[in-house]
Amino acid sequence: MTTIKNYIGSYDLLKSHKISFLCSRKCPAHIVLKSYDWAINQREKGNCVISGFHSKIEKDIFHFLLKGNQPVILALARCLKKTYDTEIQKALNDQRLLILSPFDTSIRHITSETSKIRNHFMCELSDEIFVAFASPESKLLSLIKECIAHGKTVFTFDVPENSHLIEMGVMEYRDKYKSWKNLN
Questions:
Q1: Is residue 119 exposed (0-12), middle (13-18) or buried (19+ Cβ within 10 Å)?
Q2: How do 153-156 and 128-133 pair as beta strands?
Q3: Could you tell me the CATH number of the domain that includes residue 162?
Q4: Can you give the pTM of this predicted structure?
Q5: What whole-number distance in Å separates Cα of residue 69 and Cα of residue 46?
Q6: Domain containing 138: what range?
Q7: 24 with 57: CB under 8 angstroms?
Q8: With a cut of 70, which residues of the chain have pLDDT below it?
Q9: How many domains, the chain?
Q10: Three-class SS of residue 68?
Q11: For residue range 26-74, what is the model confidence (pLDDT) as tens digits?
């Protein structure tokens, strides 16, 4: 298991039921819109979402989540920054944001390798995993297969573009979401 090397914020958030959010960088527009609705639903239900919030869609999801009061965990693919913008600082001050990194201070730049390590780290920490979309040729597919093999519950939207995920054993979000903690 990957260890937390650095963190800032409320470490107690790790005790929360955590849902990882993953998505390929290139994503069909209708899935992006569904993802925004998903994020708003998580926010309204008070669910803790953990993600790297690095890609465009992930940054948008982070923006939606920070508008609420629920816990959020930001997992970095580099070391911690020295300063954060006002919105992030407010969430840190409110004790509802945890920023953590599996890297020491020598890792200052994000690479495909540090992103891969971060994604594994997030999935290890999470209780469930939500994959909005994973393109058939993405590196994300091997991570999803590993998560399923290790007994993690993985969900996705029931759309034709995700049929390859459902065939792998990823559960359809529309059928399973009511069993997620706090979503009833």
A1: buried
A2: parallel
A3: 3.40.50.450
A4: 0.91
A5: 7
A6: 6-177
A7: no
A8: 1, 174-184
A9: 1
A10: coil
A11: 999 999 999 999 999 999 999 999 999 999 999 999 999 999 999 999 9
